[in-house]
């Protein structure tokens, strides 16, 4: 049986040490690592991939550093686009 994996990202912006004050960069990094730790623990405890993904989205929606579920970066044409998907296989 394959090992479930959850892939997350903090958005389309440039979350790099050269683009942010170092303390802010550390906050983003710590937040993403916490989402990873939490969901990895849930998977190891027997949660489904869908349950782990739902937890990751909830954690990021509740974190003020991210605009997950609330907004989007403007597109090249000046509009906004939001998209969500979940892909899984039984």
Write up what this structure looks like:
It contains two helices and no strands. It has 90 residues and is mainly α. Helix content is 40%, strand content 0%. Helix 1 (22-44) packs antiparallel against helix 2 (49-61).
Taking Cα atoms only, what radius of gyration do you get, to the nearest Å?
15 Å
Task: Give the CA-CA distance, first to last residue.
Answer: 11 Å
- Structural class, please? mainly alpha
For the sheet with most strands, the description reads: none
- Uncertain stretches: none
Shape: globular
List keywords for this structure.
about 90 residues, about 0% strand
Tell me the layout of helices and strands.
Layout: H1 22-44, H2 49-61
In short:
By secondary structure, the chain is mainly alpha-helical. 40% of the residues lie in helices and 0% in strands. The chain is built from two helices and no strands.
């Amino acid at each position: 049986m394959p090992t479930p994996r959850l892939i997350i990202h903090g958005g389309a912006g440039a979350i790099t040490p050269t683009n942010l004050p170092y303390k802010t960069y550390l906050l983003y990094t710590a937040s993403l690592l916490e989402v990873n730790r939490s969901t990895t623990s849930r998977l190891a405890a027997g949660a489904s991939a869908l349950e782990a993904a739902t937890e990751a989205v909830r954690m990021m929606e509740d974190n003020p550093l991210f605009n997950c579920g609330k907004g989007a970066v403007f597109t090249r044409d000046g509009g906004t686009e939001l998209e969500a998907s979940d892909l899984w296989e039984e």
